[in-house]
Design a protein that fits this description.
mainly alpha; single chain; 0% strand; 4 helices; 80% helix
């Protein structure tokens, strides 16, 4: 892949991730806390919000691992673009959400 093609791929992926995170904001957060669902899910399961996020994220990581294993087993297999977009985009988004939870914890601890 040429450098310019890769740069476009990165720009498109980051733009897609940003759009999804901003649109899902209305669906998955409260009016005052973007990370509300992870905190509430953690309370439901008596877990830290990071554990709740990790559990939700795990299904995406398993799907990616399955995709990789299939590509290794069958060198002629290429997953369709929609699958790649969904799974890799979700993985990037969960990484960003984890960073949000980490920064949220840092802010809470610094405020003590």
């Amino acid at each position: 892949m040429f450098h310019k093609e890769f740069d476009i791929l990165v720009q498109n992926r980051l733009s897609s991730c940003s759009g999804i995170l901003c649109n899902k904001d209305k669906e998955y957060s409260s009016a005052d806390d973007r990370l509300h669902n992870f905190k509430k899910a953690g309370r439901f399961k008596d877990q830290d919000p990071i554990q709740a996020l990790d559990g939700m994220w795990l299904k995406h990581r398993v799907s990616i691992d399955d995709m990789v294993e299939r590509m290794i087993a069958d060198p002629l297999y290429v997953p369709d673009r929609e699958l790649v977009t969904d799974k890799l985009g979700d993985n990037i988004n969960y990484t960003l959400l984890l960073e949000g939870l980490i920064e949220d914890r840092r802010n809470e601890l610094e405020g003590l």
